[in-house]
Write a structure and sequence with these properties.
The chain is 64% helix and 7% strand. It is α+β, with helices and mostly antiparallel strands. Strands 1, 2, 9, 10 and 11 form a five-stranded antiparallel sheet that branches. Strands 4-7-3-8 form a four-stranded antiparallel sheet, with helices on both faces. A two-stranded antiparallel sheet has the order 5-6.
Length: 831
């Protein structure tokens, strides 16, 4: 637990890499993920760095890969996953991969362009075929009525004749037809005759591939000017115009020719489609590998841009943070990278001293990562600060279970968490990128632990879906009446359990006696029990948090903090709130069922303790008043101890350093006067004093200024925060009692109001009704108790750890260790 208890020891290392070996060495370090590089060129523009051209080429290849991926996915072709580890490509592979992607993109664009042109021609032929097929009826009607027009010509036809009518035929989108017809009527004032017919099957758009419903239309008009207007209207509505012969034989010949061309074009389209599919299928097998190679190559060149060049332009200099325990592994990776590149000069790694604060590195696995993320969400631990994560592995699910204590609900939660754990690989691949379910999947281990701990606390409370289980015979015998199994299962039974009238003194072996389920004073007894339990758990965790601060003080060698902070804090906490826990335990052991009514109230006892009131009726042991007075006096004295001890000690130390510097400067000036044998007169004495003042002021500039008032205010804030925090935090732990009671009551109300309605029916209708009632009860249980109540308990547990527990020892003012890692890069790409 070394690394988990405290962050890894970090060091700043300086790397000297030969130019030929730098790429391979960075690639090896990226596979390890153990170094965090620093930018040595913060003032250099990104476009002026050494490897900017290589980064641009990688960006261009990434663009081509995204285009190819889009084409593959649009064709419903599955991209093959990478089954084995893909190493970073060598720099010489950049040219080959770039040429290969360029050729593939050009070929795909050419195929797509040809296919789009062929589809456009195919669409035009289909539209023209539809015109010939649908307008056959129009011209047939015209030919049928032509003899009547010739034999009995109208007055207008006598001068013009039917042969002078113009004709336009085309295809238009079906949804534009009403507006098109209205526009024709308004422009021509009703002198254009429109006939239209819908095309039954949809036509495919060659660009988008969507199905479009169109209709065929024919316009008959008289005069050249009216024909020009009609053509412009067709162009405005994006109608496709096609010639349509008036002669039936010509139309038949044209139909036969178009049908032949459609068949030939369909054959060409099929071959083009097959060629494109074969090309995309072959590409899909290696597309993911190309993505990984390009991303790794781009990341390497981005990292190389962080390095500096020496004066000879033959060596790259880098600085990086890395764990001390992994220095040997890093050096092996550098040697391997140098050997694989064929460089003659070995790479050098030197540890350097730096005043910068190192990053915080906590090594985790998939189990501990979720608890570390909870801690880091509050604040990343300062470098080498005690890490609360290992303790949260136990305390977090335990405090949650205290509030969520129901064995039935805990079993469902544990089974759900176990399912997530067992199926984690498949679920991560399928739903790992989902925003909501991804969070639940990431917390699968903590969900499982919270469920298991809830089963334990539910058995302690003897609460399973708001009902009690009878593992052993009841230990109660009130007023000479033994409780049988029938008494325990009566829904309407209610008994007042009075400890003073209990004759059976044998306690229930494990958990709570099931007879409390039908007791009239169940809530009052549970309130007392859970309230005291919450106080004991809360104060124990706060004391543990204060004790953990000792490890920080000892590690950072702040031994004065042990005297000025830890000792008064632990005394103040134990002498007041720890004493309250002692009174609870004494009350449990001293008073039995027979004399329980004589037990004094803890709240009144604590109030009298601070009021220094001596009430003999509230005393639990001899000399209790004297002990309480001593505890209160010592605890109150700890407040000025915490407030004044540190500022006064800092002020005394500052005055001592000032005197020491003053005496050093005075001795130095006196020595120079004696060596020069200067005769001191008034002017010389004044000059000597001025010189002494200048030297003293210059020497004290290095000494940090100290203001006693600022130190006193700063320490006063911390003192008030701690003293008031002990009170408020103790009261805050009562949420363990409140939420536990709320969960139990809500579960009981849901059972009584829903499930009991179905179980209370003894008729045939009730046997059918129970199915619907159970379904509704199960849905409400999952939605309210397992989701809303669980989320509420989780958030309250989070607050207890962040505020009440971690505030005693944890600052969280560090910055995380973000190593250069290909694995993290792949995870970011998936997101």
């Amino acid at each position: 637990m070394g690394s988990l208890f405290r962050s890894e020891e970090m060091t700043l290392a300086q790397l000297f890499l030969q130019s030929e070996a730098a790429y391979a060495c960075v690639a090896e370090l990226g596979e390890l993920g153990l170094v965090q590089f620093r930018d040595l060129n913060p003032d250099v523009n990104a476009f002026q760095r050494k490897f900017v051209n290589e980064v641009r080429r990688c960006d261009e290849m990434e663009r081509k890969l995204r285009y190819i991926e889009k084409e593959v996915t649009s064709s419903n072709i599955k991209i093959h996953d990478v089954s084995e580890h893909v190493k970073a490509p060598a720099p010489r592979e950049l040219v080959d991969l770039e040429a290969k992607l360029d050729k593939l993109e050009s070929e795909l664009r050419e195929v797509n362009s040809n296919q789009e042109a062929l589809k456009q021609n195919y669409l035009e032929l289909e539209e023209q075929m539809s015109i010939l097929h649908n307008t056959q009826t129009f011209f047939h009607i015209g030919e049928h009525y032509a003899p009547f027009a010739e034999g009995n010509p109208l007055p207008q036809q006598q001068s013009v004749g039917i042969q002078s009518l113009g004709c336009l035929s085309g295809v238009l989108n079906r949804d534009r037809l009403p507006a098109f017809e209205q526009m024709l009527w308004r422009v021509s004032r009703g002198n254009i005759f429109l006939r239209c017919n819908e095309i039954e099957r949809p036509l495919q758009d060659p660009v988008t591939g969507d199905d479009v419903y169109k209709c065929v239309f024919v316009l008959f008009f008289q005069g050249e000017q009216l024909g020009i207007r009609a053509r412009k209207i067709c162009e405005g509505f994006r109608a496709s115009l096609y010639p349509c012969p008036e002669d039936a034989n010509e139309r038949q010949e044209l139909t036969t020719g178009i049908r032949t061309r459609i068949q030939d074009l369909q054959m060409v389209l099929n071959k083009t489609y097959d060629h494109r599919q074969r090309l995309l299928v072959e590409t899909a097998t290696t597309l993911q590998v190309w993505f990984i190679k390009v991303n790794k190559m781009k990341a390497i060149y981005h990292t190389l841009n962080l390095f500096n060049l020496d004066v000879t332009q033959k060596c790259l200099i880098a600085e990086c943070w890395c764990p001390v325990d992994d220095l040997e592994t890093i050096q092996r990776a550098l040697r391997h990278g140098t050997e694989s590149s064929g460089a003659s000069v070995p790479s050098i790694l030197n540890r350097v001293q730096s005043p910068l604060q190192p990053p915080t590195c906590n090594k985790t696995n998939k189990f501990t990562a979720v608890f570390q993320d909870i801690i880091d969400a509050y604040g990343v631990a300062s470098y080498r600060e005690v890490n609360p994560a290992p303790y949260a592995i136990i305390t977090f699910p335990f405090l949650f279970a205290v509030m969520f204590g129901d064995a039935g609900h805990g079993l469902i939660m544990a089974l759900f968490g176990l399912f997530l754990v067992v199926k984690e690989r498949k679920l991560i691949q399928a739903y790992g990128n989902d925003e909501v379910f991804g969070i639940i999947l990431g917390g699968r281990y903590i969900i499982f632990l919270m469920g298991m701990f809830s089963i334990y606390t539910g058995l302690i409370y003897n609460d399973v879906f708001s009902k009690s289980l009878k593992f052993f015979d009841s230990s109660w015998n009130v007023s000479g009446m033994d409780f049988s199994d029938e008494d325990l299962i009566k829904a309407d039974a209610s008994y007042f359990l009075d400890p003073c009238n209990t004759t059976n003194g044998v306690p229930y072996p494990f958990g709570m006696d099931p007879i409390w389920q039908v007791s009239g004073n169940k809530i009052s007894w549970l309130n007392s029990y859970k309230m005291k339990m919450s106080i004991i758990v809360g104060i124990s965790q706060m004391v543990f948090g204060v004790i953990l601060s000792v490890f920080n003080y000892v590690h950072f060698r702040k031994y004065s903090s042990l005297l000025f902070d830890f000792i008064p804090q632990i005394i103040f906490l134990l002498f007041i709130f720890g004493y309250m826990v002692v009174l609870i335990v004494i009350k449990w052991f001293k008073y039995s069922a027979e004399n329980s009514m004589e037990a004094p109230s803890l709240i009144i006892t604590i109030i009298n303790m601070f009021l220094l009131t001596n009430d003999e009726d509230l005393m639990m042991y001899s000399n209790q008043y004297e002990v309480q007075v001593a505890l209160v006096v010592i605890a109150v004295l700890c407040i000025p101890w915490m407030l004044l001890a540190r500022p006064v000690s800092q002020f005394i130390a500052h005055r001592g350093r000032m005197r020491q510097r003053l005496s050093t400067v005075s001795i130095s000036c006196r020595g120079r006067d004696e060596d020069a044998e200067v005769i001191i007169n008034d002017d010389a004495l004044q000059a000597n004093h001025e010189e002494l003042g200048d030297v003293l002021n210059g020497s004290l500039k290095a000494e940090e200024s100290f203001e006693f008032g600022e130190a006193l205010i700063y320490q006063g804030i911390h003192t008030i925060e701690y003293c008031l925090g002990c009170i408020s935090h103790t009261a805050s732990y009562l949420r363990l009692w409140a939420l536990s009671l709320a969960h139990a009551e809500l579960s009981e109300v849901l059972w009584t109001m829903v499930m009991q309605q179905g179980l209370g029916q003894n008729t045939l209708f009730g046997s059918v009704m129970i199915f619907g009632v159970f379904a509704f009860w199960a849905i409400m249980t999952v939605a309210i108790l397992l989701m809303m109540e669980a989320l509420s308990a989780f958030l309250h547990t989070l607050r207890l750890h962040w505020v009440e527990f971690q505030s005693k020892f944890y600052k969280g003012e560090g910055h995380p260790f973000k190593p250069f890692s290909f694995q993290d890069l792949a995870a970011e790409q998936q997101e």
